[in-house]
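Example 9 (inverse folding). The structure is encoded as follows.
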């Protein structure tokens, strides 16, 4: 690894940690540079440009490995796969990555922090939506529930994303702080998340007529 690439890696690691712990907008390039051991205050901007470019680089640093793990998971999914199998392909690659990347890890908390900033949320969303394995997983999941109206599908997709991001971020935070976690491992945490998400997608849909709910 040449010197420039080594500097970039130091900056990426420092930025991810600081963003995860303090929030993206609360951290300056100067603080990132200092944490990365860079005496030049312009080092972050020189190597990555705008904040959005730095956030994109952090997301991309992790996405390739998650994509690889999801491809392996999909290789075991047959044509007759049910909802639970597709949900497992959604959940387990991310938790497996966090299990092998640390401890400590900051990526789950970094993602949760970024998602609170609309302009940067779009950056990470674009990286995520570029994943072929994720697109295949979501398509398979939705095909299992053809009776769900499109608006309910969209609503439950949003719920799924929130549950995934924040459950993983809270577990990561608890592990970093030496706190108590409800599950003893990332694999068990993935099982709990899978159970919850299957229940979410199979939940009944309350019909609405003229704005009024009907059982």
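The amino acid assigned to each position is listed next.
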């Amino acid at each position: 690894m040449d010197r420039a690439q080594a500097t970039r890696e130091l900056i990426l690691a420092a930025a991810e940690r600081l963003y995860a712990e303090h929030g993206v907008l609360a951290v300056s390039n100067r603080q990132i540079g200092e944490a990365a051991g860079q005496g030049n205050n312009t080092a972050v901007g020189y190597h990555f440009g705008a904040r959005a470019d730095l956030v994109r680089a952090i997301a991309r640093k992790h996405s390739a490995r998650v994509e690889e793990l999801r491809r392996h998971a999909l290789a075991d999914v047959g044509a007759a796969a049910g909802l639970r199998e597709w949900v497992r392909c959604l959940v387990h690659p991310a938790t497996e990555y966090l299990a092998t990347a640390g401890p400590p890890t900051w990526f789950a908390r970094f993602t949760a922090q970024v998602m609170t900033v609309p302009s940067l949320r779009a950056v990470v969303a674009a990286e995520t939506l570029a994943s072929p394995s994720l697109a295949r997983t979501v398509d398979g999941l939705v095909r299992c529930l053809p009776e769900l109206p499109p608006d309910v599908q969209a609503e439950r997709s949003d719920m799924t994303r929130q549950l995934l991001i924040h459950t993983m971020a809270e577990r990561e935070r608890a592990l970093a702080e030496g706190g108590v976690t409800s599950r003893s491992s990332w694999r068990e945490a993935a099982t709990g998340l899978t159970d919850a998400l299957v229940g979410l997608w199979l939940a009944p849909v309350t019909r609405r007529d003229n704005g009024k709910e009907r059982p």
